[in-house]
Amino acid sequence: MQSRSKVLFLVEVAIFAALAFVLDLFSFKAWAQGGSISLQMVPIFLMAFRWGWKGGLTTGLVVGLLQLVTNPYIIHVVQGFLDYPLAFTLVGLAAVTAGSARKAAKENNRTKLVGFLIIGTLIGSIGRFASHFVGGMVFFGSAAAPGQTVWAYSLIYNGSYLLPSFIASIIVILILVLAQPKFILPKK
C-alpha cells in the first residue's frame, strides 16, 4: 500500500504541475520583461494543502523548472534561479496551514477552512514575491525611474502582477475547496 501512495503522489505532482503550466498559457502578460497575472499558482497551492510540504514544494519546483526550460527571461544565472525554481518552490510554503485546513475540512468547519486556506495561500504568495523582489532589486534595479529606489521599483513591479494573481488564486481555491473539500484530502 505504501508504494501505491508514492505512485499516486508522483502522478498528482505531474498532473498538477502540467495544469499549472497550461494555466500560465492563459495568463495576462503584465510586463514585457516577465510577470503575468495568472492562475498558475492554484495547482501548487492545492498540492500544498493536499499533500503538505512534500506536495507543495515538489510541485512548485517542477513548475519552476518547466518555466525555466520553456520561455525564461534570464540575464544572470542567480536571477534565473530566483525567478524560476526558487520562486515557484516557495509557493509550496502554503503547506504551513495544510494540516489545519485538512482538519477543518474533515470537521466541516467552513469558517476555519476559509481562514487556513487564505493564510496558506498568502504565505505561499509572499514566498514567491520575496524571491522575485530580491531578484528585481539585484538584477533589474537599473530599470527604476530616476530618483526611485531599487526596492520601491521591485516592490511595485512584482506587486503589480503578484497581488492580482494572489487574489484570483484565493478566489478559485475557495470556490473549489468549499464546493468539494475532498480536493485537499489525499487518498493515501
Written overview of the protein:
The chain is an all-alpha fold and 188 residues long. The chain has one domain: Arp2/3 complex 21 kDa subunit ARPC3 (Orthogonal Bundle). The protein is 73% helix and 2% strand. Strands 1-2 form a two-stranded antiparallel sheet. Helix 2 (41-51) packs across helix 7 (150-179) and helix 5 (98-106) runs antiparallel to helix 6. The longest helix is centred in the middle third of the chain and has 30 residues, at 110-139. The radius of gyration is 17 Å and the shape is globular. It starts with a helix and ends in a 9-residue tail after the last helix. One of its GO terms (molecular function) is thiamine transmembrane transporter activity. This is Thiamine transporter.
